[in-house]
Amino acid sequence: MNKTAGYRFTIIVPVFNEEDNMYTLEKRLSAFLPECREKACVLFVNDGSTDASAERIREVCSRNPDFFHIGFVRNAGLSAALKAGIDYTESEYLGYMDADLQTAPEDFNLLLEHIADYTMVTGIRANRKDTLFKRFQSKFANGFRRMMTHDGATDTGCPLKVLHTDAAKRLPLFKGMHRFLPALVLLQDGGCYKQVAVRHFPRTAGKSKFHLWNRLAGPFADCFAYRWMKPRYINYKVGETDLV
Ligand code: UDP
Ligand code: MG
Fold it and tell me: Nearest residue CA, atom 16 of ligand 1?
């Protein structure tokens, strides 16, 4: 058991070179925790940052008793950071948001309201505050992915999601999987998700880590991998056991 087991909800925040966002994150998250619908903690996953993020994460965690962190030895990518967050979470629910605060932690409450009835509740970025070019890439990618996976998801890239931890731990995880969470949830027996509109803000500090190529080429190939995986996905129901 680790410290997240003492909470109902763990907020995973992947961090890669976000030194200029750490203090704002601290302010926003520490203000939100007492307002959260569930007893919540924060789990920063430092994905091998090469700037001052690691020191700032340690500093922020040392003065907030409900903030914890994991630090990678070297950069392993956003999917790896999310997987580590999921692997290390022991609260009943988990959620994730980006460190750049393009989504508001307060909107976790909108998602948590429905989590008892769904495997996952995901945000849809209303009035998206990204460049026209980025929104165009996203529209194109979302359309192609929907056609290939039939996941029906409007905005899988939205960095505000809440899941049942046990279901999250059973998701097949691979690089780029954070863009396929609705489709992956639907593979599970009884898996279902709900979409809720959340607010979106421009990135005010630090730099985006993704560009046209890694935003489109990887996901394009992943759509075919998903089609391969779908009929092969393993589900089983245990009728009885004397293990517990
Ligand atoms: N991130 C990470 N590892 C990486 C790249 C990004 O942990 O290798 C984190 C980053 O710090 C941020 C989140 O993933 O919290 C999303 O990244 P970003 O905002 O750059 O992506 P965008 O919103 O531009 O798609
Ligand atoms: Mg961002």
Answer: 98
Pairing assessment for the beta strands 160-164 and 120-125 based on DSSP bridges:
antiparallel
Residues with a CB atom less than 6 Å from ligand 1:
14-16, 18, 47, 75, 77-78, 81, 98-100, 208-210
What would the two tokens of residue 136 be?
């165009």
In the block, which residue shows the tokens 């429905």?
114
pLDDT value, residue 6: 98
pTM of the model: 0.96
Sites in the chain below the pLDDT cut of 70:
none
Ligand nearest to the CA of 134: 1
- Could you give the angle at the alpha carbon of 202 between the alpha carbons of 20 and 140, nearest 5°? 125
Ligand 2 midpoint to CA 24 (Å):
15
Query: What is the C-alpha end-to-end distance of the chain, expressed in Å?
Result: 18
Ligand 2 centre distance from Cα of residue 204 (Å):
10
Nearest to 200 by CA among 113, 135, 104: 104
Which pLDDT score, from 0 to 100, does residue 214 have?
Answer: 76
Strand partners, 15: 46
pLDDT at position 219: 87
The total number of residues shown for the chain amounts to 244
Report the nearest-CA residue for atom 18 of ligand 1. 208
